[in-house]
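call fold(seq) -> tokens
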Amino acid sequence: MKVVRMSQVSKELFPNPIFTGSDVTRQTLVPDSKDFNVTIVNFGKGVRNKLHTHDSEQVLIVTAGKGIVATEKEQQTVTVGDVILFSAGEKHWHGATAGSEFSHIYVTRLDSQTHIVE
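ret:
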């Protein structure tokens, strides 16, 4: 068993072309997992990611702030405690509202790839 205290995991800059801005950090929570990516992503105000898909399902667990989650068909505002499930291959994006920072834990299969939709 391993217990991780999120408050003790260092934030590292997370530059990636998937984001619409540079104010993004990540905290890898279980780097030794053999099955899952489990990471906190912290978005600055108004920063989000671009439309994308994953090879596996993706679960988001909102941990701070107010954000937006969207597919091609709908968009919803989410806040602390909300849990979102995106199906494998579902086109979607998520990020902070203009007036709030936003953080979520994301969980995907370890071998899942992310594909930006151009």
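The radius of gyration is 13 Å.
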